[in-house]
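ok trying this again, last paste got cut off
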Amino acid sequence: MNLADRIAQRRPADPPPAEAPARQTASEPARRATDPLAPIRRRVHAELMGVLGSQLHHDPAEEDEFEERVRTALSEVLAREEAPLTAADRAKVAADVADEVLGHGPIEPLLRDPEVSEIMVNGPRRIFVERKGKLTMVDAEFVDENHLRRVIDKIVSRIGRRVDEASPMVDARLPDGSRVNAVVPPIALDGSSLTIRKFSEDPLTVEDLITFGTLTRATADLLDACVRGRLNIVVSGGTGSGKTTTLNVLSRFIPSDERIVTIEDAAELQLGQDHVLRLESRPANAEGRGAITIRDLVRNSLRMRPDRIVVGEVRDGAALDMLQAMNTGHDGSLTTAHANTPRDCLARLETMVLMAGMDLPVRAIREQVASAVDLIIQVARLKDGSRKITHVTEVAGMEGDIVTLQDLFVFDYKAGQDALGRFQGTLVSTGLRPRFLEKIGDVGVTVPSEVFSFPGDVR
């Protein structure tokens, strides 16, 4: 086991700079008063930087060799350290400095912690994490604002993006696919903000979601049939509700002999098929040129002979191009959208189509939506921190000027909560049979009738 991996999950932090933080409350950890290892850590770090010199600008392809050089040099620098250190303190200093050079400083242990699903840095002194849906403040901090900005610059520069006063917001990703958002002054008033939504190296499967209670076996069987039957599906939900995770699971139902094109702002999807082409949008450069939008990529994907188009999220006029693709032979497409209910999802799709700048009548837009979208899967993060599929809803067609919806499965809130506040309900069938059964039957996919038995198959 290397030195960096031996770091404790709760680590001492560097002392605050000469000026006290702008906002320090009585609830903040008392540890901020002193840290006896901080001067040693700074001294070792500075000497290590002097030893490495130009080697810091290495070829990413030589990452393993660079890491070995860093650890060798770090051991030599520590051997020359004159301050008396216990074995535990020496290992802690080594781990902290290794995280600083090779990783992302004080948040590196949190990135390694499999129980942490999200990391929220609110300025250099306040770091929160999400564990099992609950937010807690952790015993870690950056030295100062400059320290935090160096880590942010390190993350965004890897994928050729920048963040500064002229462009103070940026979306990026870590090498493992974790989503990163950074906001810096002047629009971040209390110091730079960094939000990292982690993704597991081992993507969740449908069996995992069944085990977690996100959906039932009957619902999983239905969704499997819907994807194989080439229905167009929209996953709807709020921020952090699990839309991308659900989309990942759905994409794994796509047959391996089909050509899949994925389109995202920051590449997050982890598809297991062999024939996958991944496209990623690009912001404008410093001169305001060179931007490649989701809409541009959706249009281009139509020329790439896709069997399936998977869009990580539609949030603007790209919705019009996505709906047209669904209506012109690219059935079986998948995407996500921000909305609180299936009905709200339809309204949001209408709004996004209007954002494309096309002067279309509302009825024409609704006819496009009703014709293109077959199924809406609503996901939500409940008050107990759990993520559930709350609706599986069929888009049944048009009645007059209204798009009609039919709930096939709904979450049973009436089951109540246990002593710990956890919801006891699950998805239950409404007893209604969907109209799309004939459509998926035409491509040889069938769904057992017991899947729709009321009050729901909750095996």
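PB: full thing came through this time. The radius of gyration is 25 Å.
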